[in-house]
Design goal:
Distance between the termini: 38 Å
Structural class: mainly alpha
Low-confidence stretches: none
CATH architecture: Up-down Bundle
Largest sheet: 2 strands, antiparallel
Length: about 200
């Protein structure tokens, strides 16, 4: 299942970026469009990713929000934000590495989908946030080539459908001679030149 490999690579890319963030930068402002939290910080973004990681094993088991109750309410990061995120990431990775039925129906806050589509949805979030966070922090960062090709393969044909659902902003014209990563980032509307 390509979506399983896409998730594992996108999740690893996001973790590689998060693990580079020094704790003193977590109070740095994050773009408002990244969060529903007013005046979000990088810690708020990390908290959202931690919650998303925490949900993965339960969603794969077919659990609903009602089943989980308040399990993931409150602060999941505590006084070790990166370490806590990493532990939740480990649990999500282990769950996705299990033998999964791609056609199993899973339950998300916005509807029921086949498990393969769930993995696709959450992979998009992870992959492009990895790039966006790194760029926000001024780092020289590129998505792994294998991840870029998987994104082209799995979501490339459906970018316009995702855009119609509000997932992606408008497409950006790619600069002349752009590489595959830049072409992809332009196609999904995230690319910006390095500052």
């Amino acid at each position: 299942m390509k979506q399983k490999e896409l998730f594992l690579q996108a999740d690893a890319a996001l973790r590689s970026v998060i693990d580079r963030i020094s704790p003193d930068r977590l109070d740095q402002p994050a773009p408002a469009e990244w969060s529903l939290t007013p005046n979000p910080t990088l810690r708020d973004i990390l908290a959202a990713h931690a919650r998303d990681e925490a949900w993965v094993p339960d969603v794969l088991l077919g659990r609903t929000i009602e089943d989980a109750g308040g399990t993931y309410d409150g602060d999941l990061l505590g006084d070790d934000p990166i370490g806590r995120y990493d532990r939740l990431n480990d649990l999500a990775t282990a769950a996705v590495n299990e033998d999964l039925n791609p056609d199993k129906t899973v339950h998300m806050s916005y509807g029921d989908y086949p498990l393969s589509e769930y993995l696709e949805h959450i992979s998009i979030y992870r992959a492009f946030q990895a790039w966006s966070i790194a760029r926000q922090l001024g780092w020289d960062y590129a998505l792994p080539e294998s991840l870029v090709e998987l994104l082209w393969d799995v979501i490339g044909p459906h970018v316009d459908d995702f855009r119609a659902m509000g997932v992606f902003p408008p497409e950006i014209d790619a600069p002349a001679g752009a590489d595959r990563e830049t072409q992809l980032l332009c196609r999904v509307g995230y690319w910006m030149p390095a500052s």
